[in-house]
């Protein structure tokens, strides 16, 4: 019997890049599951996670590809369900990972209604086929989605205006809230993980006049979608703490940025004295919502993956020692992904991908895995799934005990 049972069966999670947006000037439909070969290697990919001691993975249902004029064909996800069941890994289902059906206007009431119907249909399909508990992310990264599709014009609906960015975010929040309620009409115990980037923006050193705009990005804009979903803002949309449920904060080095008036902000370079400790940023989220918290995505790049994991673990344990309810850390992605713009491999996965006679061979980053193993042992966590990884939830008291034993100090000098 766990002294302090966690929500998930393992503390370390993972996931697979599953974007399905209409992308770029050519406005072509992307399918990152196919581009990374996850659709062809699902069984191997999930067996790999099982051998790593990871029992939960973020996985996508491609809304634009399963929605057939109001009807649904979910057969394309059957191989993933079979692979997860065989490997004893449960999903956090991403129901909208930047993609939606071609004939929908995301600013319309019809978008909200159709998304809710789809969420209900998706839940009706997966709940009886996958061992519970059941986890869903209705709309992935609402804040970032609204930027890249509402202001920067990278993805559909290809708008390039700050007002449209705000309108898109409100529409996505309305849809996400409606989706939660539709899912819970199928499974009242379903858990929700609302994922968005954890962001901090500072003014350029030579532009103190932009300090207020940077502060607004950090203290207001970063949190608006979560504020709406939990009912702090726009309560007429139906948000509430139980709708919010679990907060998923995505943590990357480029989440701390220097303000730019036009276009994406500029990531702060390593060693910049304006970088804040991750521990402090996590504490801000915790104090704002008092909801269970996970790091919804994190990874370093290239040879920096091992050092990045070490830094994130130290900061996370410093946060746990402060009393923050950190339930899990998601090492994302499990396999590498292409840069959306250039197509070059990012080298941020637990496995890299190399061409093997037209196929994509998985090449584990052994140093990254060794660092994961070190932290699993430090936290008294399993290093490989047993026959029934769901018989007990993760023992969070072990994580708390490790945090007090190691007594990590917050450090802004990340790897």
Automatic annotation (TrEMBL):
SUPFAM superfamilies noted in UniProt: (Trans)glycosidases
Protein name: B-glycosidase
Top-level division of the source organism's lineage: Bacteria
